[in-house]
Design a protein that fits this description.
alpha+beta; Thrombin, subunit H; six-stranded antiparallel β-barrel; 4 helices; 15 strands; 22% helix
Length: 271
C-alpha cells in the first residue's frame, strides 16, 4: 500500500510540473527570456556599429600623376572596401590582406561613408593578418576589448561589418561560436600556422576586419576569412567564418613591438 501511495505521489508531482510548464506563467517566462536575448543583441548592435569603419582601397595605376589624392584634384579608382574597428581614439584595427600590395587607402565612419579620412599604417602582423591604422579626425568611439580565451562552444556572438560595400555599412548578423582553436595556414605567409575560431554568423566579401562581439558588447574577434567551397569541388559551404581571437591581437600587435614591412626596424607603437 505504501508503495502504491508513493507511486501516486510521483505521478501527481509529474502532472503538476507538466501543468506548470504549460501554464501562462511559463509562457511569460519564455517570452521574457526571448525579450532579454533580443534586447542584448540590439544593444550590442547599436553600440558596436558606432565603432565600425569602412576601409577604402584605391587602385594605383602605372601612369598615375605625381600629385597625391589628397593634395590635388586627382583621385584613383576605388578597388576594394573592407571593415575596421576603432580600438583606441583615432586608431583602427583591420586585416592586413585588405591593404597588402595595394595603393592608397582611406577610412570612413560607418555613419558618414561620404567623408574619407587619410590613414597611416602604424603596425602590421602579416602572419596573423592584422594591421593598425592611425586616422586623424576620426570621430568614432573605441570598442571595449573582451577576452577571447573565455569563449565557449555554442556561445552567442554578434558580427558587425560592411559586407559588399559601404552602402551596407555596419550590417549586423547573429550566430554562435561554431569551433575553437582552429589551426589553419596563414593566408599571408606560407608555412606559418594561425589559431582562429569559427562562427556561423553571416560573413561576406567586405566583412574582413569587422568585429565579433559577445553579448556584453565586448570585442572578442576580428573577421578574417570565409570558406565557401573546396577548389575543384562542387560542394558549397555556408556558415564557415573564421575569426582572429582578440587576445591574439592584444598580445601580438596592440601592446607589442611591431616591425613594419620593409622598415628594417622594430618600434613600440605610441598611441
Amino acid at each position: 500500500m505504501l508503495n502504491h501511495h508513493r507511486a501516486c505521489a510521483v505521478v501527481l508531482v509529474v502532472l503538476i510540473v507538466v501543468l506548470l510548464a504549460l501554464s501562462p506563467c511559463a509562457a511569460l517566462a519564455d517570452d521574457a527570456s526571448v525579450e532579454a536575448l533580443q534586447e542584448a543583441v540590439m544593444s550590442v548592435a547599436e553600440d558596436a556599429s558606432q565603432s565600425i569603419v569602412v576601409i577604402n582601397v584605391y587602385h594605383e595605376p602605372t601612369n598615375r600623376p605625381s600629385s597625391s589624392m589628397f593634395t590635388g584634384g586627382y583621385k584613383p579608382l576605388l578597388e576594394a572596401q573592407g571593415s575596421g574597428i576603432v580600438v583606441y581614439e583615432g586608431v583602427v584595427l583591420t586585416c592586413w590582406h585588405i591593404l597588402q600590395g595595394r595603393g592608397d587607402f582611406t577610412v570612413s565612419a560607418a555613419d558618414d561613408v561620404e567623408t574619407e579620412l587619410a590613414a597611416t599604417l602604424i603596425a602590421v602582423d602579416e602572419v596573423r593578418d592584422l594591421a593598425l591604422l592611425r586616422v586623424e579626425g576620426l570621430n568614432a568611439p573605441p570598442v571595449r576589448l573582451g577576452d577571447s580565451d573565455a569563449l565557449r562552444l555554442g556561445q552567442f556572438v554578434v558580427c558587425v561589418s560592411n559586407p559588399a560595400s559601404s552602402r551596407l555599412a555596419a550590417s549586423v548578423s547573429f550566430g554562435v561560436v561554431s569551433g575553437l582553436d582552429r589551426k589553419l595556414q596563414s593566408s599571408n605567409v606560407k608555412g606559418e600556422t594561425v589559431t582562429l575560431f569559427q562562427t556561423d554568423a553571416a560573413i561576406n566579401g567586405g566583412s574582413s576586419g569587422g568585429g565579433i562581439f559577445d553579448l556584453r558588447g565586448e570585442l572578442v574577434g576580428i573577421v578574417s576569412r570565409k570558406y565557401v567551397g573546396a577548389n575543384g569541388s562542387d560542394i558549397q559551404l555556408e556558415g564557415l567564418g573564421m575569426c582572429i581571437p582578440i587576445n591574439e591581437a592584444v598580445e601580438q600587435i596592440l601592446f607589442s613591438p611591431i616591425e613594419l614591412p620593409n622598415s628594417g626596424h622594430t618600434t613600440l607603437i605610441d598611441y
